[in-house]
Each structure stands twice: as structure tokens, then as C-alpha cells.
Design the sequence.
């Protein structure tokens, strides 16, 4: 009898372990997919497209794909005030941050832009402290110091007005993303995460369709350019979001946040291999400080939830 119970317990533990391992794989897949987005964008620009057109195609294609998943699975759409807030988050917040990020990619190296986007945990902490009156622990204080020290190390030694504007836009994207997260954390509790993301993406697509209707479009002029656009929409948006949420069902959010720090690492590695970008020592050190800060923020979040 004991042998049977032991075998049964062993099977359960193995199943749980495999499920968590699969969750880690999904979060890694999501991080790699997100990390490749900047590279795909640069390839699309080289093929003759521009940020507005790429973003219009990204959100339209990804939104329709995710809507199809919702319909196929019979998932309910958010309603009432939650729906209104999500639409505004997509049409205003996500449009602003994505435009800042994708425009920054036309002015500064992809690896640098990706690293600076990861300033958002520091901005989230500051916003939570100012508006939500959350205390700043010693751990978060150290993380904030690392964040801003790393930022100074990266941008303090850079030159060129065009690149400086790209750096400003990358930091702006991080600020807007932090606001988006703070607002979204209140809204997401009232809606399914996948459905909420679908509404946000479709709303952003509608907003960009209005912009291209006025401004005009610049479609990619090569096959590789179009492949990159579809990769942004289906791999770096739809697949990345689906994989992330599926992974969150299997592992702790704090662990997912730490694994997600692979994203800028993937971007930097691909930028060097595919785009031929160079990473100087001060950029690498600054990026390592920012990523270390992100890990500390994730650890601090995990401790606050346990306590």
C-alpha cells in the first residue's frame, strides 16, 4: 500500500515539476519573441517602411489573430467601465509608448533602446511610491540606485543629437510603459488577461489606422520586409503574449519577471549578430546594472507578496 502511495506521490511531483518546467520554457519563449521585435522592426525600416506603418500592421494583424483565438475558445469580452478603460489604454497609452519605442529604433542602436526600456520597473516603483503611497524598501532603494547609475553610464558617454533624441524617446517609452502598468494593474483584476490584451491591441490598431489614413502608409518594398512585419505581429506580439500568459499559469509572477530580463539580452545579441551593432564596455556595464536592478525589483515584489 505504501509503495503504491509513494509511486502516486512521485508521479504527482513529477507532473508538477514538468508543468513548472514547461512554464519556464513558455516565459523564455515569450522573452525571446519580444526581444526579437526590435530587430524585425529595423529590417522593416531598411525595406522602406516607417514606424507608423509597421505599428499599424503590427496591431491590426495581431489583433485579428488574437480576436480569432477568443472567438474559437468562446472567451468573453470585457464590458462596461473596464472595456472603456482598456480601449483608452490601447488607443492612447499603448499607441504612445509603442510609437516612442519604434521611433527610437530609427535613431539609436536597437540594443541600447531595448535596455533603456527596462527602466520601467524603476518608474513603476516611483509612481507607486508617489501615488499609491507604497514604501520604498532598502532593496528597492538599491535597485533604484543601480537603475539610474546604469542609465547615466549608458547615456552619459553617448554623442550625436539624433542618437540623443532616440535615447530620450526610449526613456519616454519606459515612462509611458510604467504608467500603463500602474493603470493596467487596477483594470486587469476585473478582466481576463488575454481578453484585456486583445482589446488593448485592437484599440491600438484602430488608432494607428486613423493615423495612416491621414499620414499615408509606407509598406515594405521587399519580401524580407514583409516577413519581418508579420514576424512582429505574430511572433513578437501574439505569440509572445500568449506564451507569457500561459507561462504565468504555471510559475510565480516574480520568477516570470526575472526570466523576462532575457528580453533585452536577446535584443542586444541579435543586434550584434544580425545588424552588426557594437556594444562598448560602458554600455555593457550600464546594461548589466539595469538588469541587476530589474532582478532586485522582482525579488522585492516576491517578498512583499509573501509578507
Sequence:
Amino acid at each position: 500500500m505504501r509503495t503504491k502511495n509513494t509511486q502516486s506521490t512521485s508521479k504527482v511531483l513529477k507532473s508538477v515539476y514538468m508543468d513548472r518546467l514547461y512554464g519556464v520554457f513558455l516565459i523564455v519563449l515569450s522573452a525571446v519573441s519580444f526581444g526579437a521585435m526590435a530587430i524585425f522592426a529595423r529590417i522593416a525600416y531598411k525595406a522602406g517602411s516607417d514606424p507608423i506603418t509597421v505599428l499599424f500592421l503590427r496591431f491590426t494583424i495581431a489583433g485579428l489573430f488574437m480576436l480569432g483565438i477568443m472567438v474559437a475558445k468562446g472567451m468573453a469580452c470585457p464590458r462596461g467601465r473596464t472595456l472603456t478603460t482598456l480601449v483608452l489604454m490601447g488607443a492612447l497609452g499603448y499607441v504612445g509608448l509603442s510609437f516612442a519605442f519604434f521611433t527610437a529604433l530609427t535613431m539609436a542602436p536597437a540594443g541600447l533602446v531595448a535596455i533603456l526600456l527596462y527602466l520601467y520597473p524603476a518608474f513603476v516603483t516611483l509612481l507607486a511610491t508617489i501615488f499609491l503611497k507604497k514604501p520604498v524598501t532598502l532593496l528597492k532603494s538599491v535597485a533604484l540606485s543601480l537603475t539610474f547609475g546604469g542609465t547615466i553610464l549608458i547615456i552619459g558617454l553617448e554623442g550625436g543629437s539624433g542618437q540623443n533624441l532616440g535615447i530620450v524617446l526610449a526613456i519616454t517609452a519606459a515612462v509611458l510603459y510604467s504608467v500603463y502598468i500602474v493603470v493596467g494593474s487596477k483594470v486587469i483584476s476585473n478582466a481576463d488577461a488575454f481578453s484585456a490584451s486583445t482589446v488593448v491591441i485592437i484599440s491600438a490598431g484602430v488608432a494607428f489606422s486613423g493615423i495612416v489614413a491621414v499620414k499615408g502608409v509606407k509598406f515594405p518594398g521587399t519580401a524580407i520586409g514583409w516577413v519581418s512585419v508579420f514576424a512582429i505581429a505574430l511572433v513578437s506580439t501574439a505569440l509572445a503574449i500568449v506564451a507569457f500568459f500561459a507561462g504565468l499559469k504555471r510559475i510565480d509572477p516574480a520568477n516570470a519577471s526575472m526570466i523576462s530580463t532575457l528580453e533585452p539580452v536577446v535584443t542586444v545579441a541579435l543586434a550584434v549578430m544580425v545588424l552588426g551593432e557594437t556594444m562598448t564596455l560602458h554600455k555593457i556595464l550600464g546594461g548589466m546594472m539595469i538588469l541587476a536592478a530589474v532582478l532586485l525589483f522582482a525579488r522585492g515584489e516576491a517578498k512583499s507578496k509573501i509578507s
Q: What stands out?
A: DSSP finds 13 helices and no strands in the chain. The longest helix spans residues 2-35. The chain has a mean pLDDT of 85.
